[in-house]
Amino acid sequence: MATFVIVGAGLAGAKAVETLRAEGFDGTVVLVGAEPERPYERPPLSKGLLLGTADRDSAFVHKPDWYGENGVLLRTGTVVTSLDRDRREVTLSGGEGLGYDRLLLATGARPRMLPVPGAELGGVLYLRTLADSERIAEAAVPGARLVIIGAGWIGLEVAAAARHRGATVDVGETADLPLQRILGDRIATVFADLHREHGVTFHFGTQVARLSGDDRVRQVELADGTVLPADAVLVAVGAQPNTELAERAGLAVDNGILVDAGLRTSDPCIYAAGDVANVAHPLLGTRIRVEHWANALNGGPAAAMAMLGREVSYDRLPYFYTDQYDLGMEYSGYAPPGTTDRIVVRGDLAKREFIVFWKDGARVVAGMNVNVWDVADPIRAIIDASLTGQSIDHAALADPAVPLDELLP
Ligand SMILES: Cc1cc2nc3c(=O)[nH]c(=O)nc-3n(C[C@H](O)[C@H](O)[C@H](O)COP(=O)(O)OP(=O)(O)OC[C@H]3O[C@@H](n4cnc5c(N)ncnc54)[C@H](O)[C@@H]3O)c2cc1C
């Protein structure tokens, strides 16, 4: 009987094993995860769990019994330490070997560390796991001074939650605006204004020089000389893919594990999905590594189908959402560097109720809806149509009087 091994018990891994069983695979399925928990979703870690609107149990992908009931051998608290492709075997942290017929690498990503003096002090926090989220909740109490390094999605979501919890929040960022590289100046300004209105203080255009304190961090010194008192520091300067296992095994790796549109690595028996996979995207015509929930949700099942020998072309557009204070937004597509300021706005930026599209020449490559709902499907359809060569009326994109559906050729 065939054995399929999945390394990484995050969302991509959990959804892959679910698909294997749903598709009737009756071989052995082993899901190996380094964390002590069964698979859970990470978006609530910076939102509902910190805001107190969601409980811990709601984050898990499956009920505790699901794995046993579905014949999935879940090995939590277990690291896959090596991969022998010739023998088709992985080694687990206890030394045990585990043979496979097909292997899925869904090892995700981990936070980038801050390479400055003092980064090892107590009270310097990162956010990736449930335990990290619980540590941040303990730190972000009324009156506590939280300094956040990095004004990306996670930094901003934690800033919003920490303000809600009554902490004071300073955010340091090397760029001139939050999310500037992804959204461009005009849309990034919407997020800067939103946070300022909620009492967040930004420090743009400067780096962290050092963290200092005694037994724990007490202050953050910025390169421009600013000194920020701190009871805790959250480092949120991005993530890096967990590719070491693949690299040591000689798989092709370049900013993630390289896979084709069928999520197959340079070894035909090994697949990769989720945050760790750098996919040759058939629609975008470029390689892309996506660190978003929907990519784990859909990429895990797509990899499972490919492992079962089905024809797979993983052509879903990247999709992302965030909630900060009373702003909710969804983003579909991918605006490559150099296009982030080429936008068409439909609606009112000042009121924070708008849709924005990003253009790359004649192509509409990305779209985002802010506090406008039930439009993600037509936005995606417009981008899909544009990427497949159909022409979209750019003037009508900006006109709220023209329903989005009517923009499709
Ligand atoms: C705080 C936070 C908030 C987020 N919010 C959003 C959001 O609002 N919207 C959105 O679209 N996305 C969001 N994301 C991103 C989203 O959660 C990720 O894209 C998603 O978790 C990726 O899933 P994954 O299964 O690929 O990887 P992961 O979730 O990283 O899971 C991989 C697992 O593999 C394990 N592992 C790694 N190496 C090994 C090994 N050698 N052996 C065994 N196990 C191993 C890891 O410990 C980990 O448990 C958020 C992420 C974080 C951290």
> How far is the first residue's CA from the last residue's CA?
49 Å
Ions, cofactors and other ligands present here are:
flavin-adenine dinucleotide
Query: How much is the radius of gyration in Å?
Result: 22 Å
Number of strands: 26
Strand content: 25-35%
- Low-pLDDT sequence parts: none
Q: State mean pLDDT (0 to 100 scale).
A: 97
Q: Sum up the overall morphology in one term.
A: globular
Counting H and I runs of at least 4 residues, what is the number of helices? 10
The biggest sheet amounts to: 5 strands, parallel
Adjacency order of strands in the biggest sheet: 3-2-1-7-19
Structural class: alpha/beta
Q: Helix proportion of residues, in percent? A: 10-25%
Describe this structure in words.
The protein has 409 residues and is of the alpha/beta class. 23% of the residues lie in helices and 30% in strands. The protein is built from ten helices and 26 strands. The chain has helices spanning 11-22, 48-51, 66-69, 130-139, 153-164, 180-197, 244-248, 293-307, 376-387, 394-397; strands at residues 3-7, 28-32, 72-75, 80-84, 89-92, 97-99, 102-105, 109-111, 124-125, 145-149, 168-173, 201-204, 208-213, 217-222, 227-229, 232-235, 239-241, 257-259, 270-272, 277-281, 286-289, 319-324, 327-333, 343-348, 353-360, 363-370. The strands form seven sheets. A five-stranded parallel beta sheet has the order 3-2-1-7-19. It has a five-stranded parallel beta sheet with strand order 9-16-10-11-12, with helices on one face. Strands 22-23-26-25-24 form a five-stranded antiparallel beta sheet. Strand 13 (208-213) and strand 14 (217-222) form a beta hairpin. The chain starts with a strand and ends in a 12-residue tail after the last helix. The model has no long low-confidence stretch (mean pLDDT 97). The chain binds flavin-adenine dinucleotide. Flavin-adenine dinucleotide (FAD) binds at residues 7-13, 32-35, 42-43, 45-46, 79-80, 106-109, 127-128, 154, 242, 245, 274-275, 291-294, 296, 320-322.
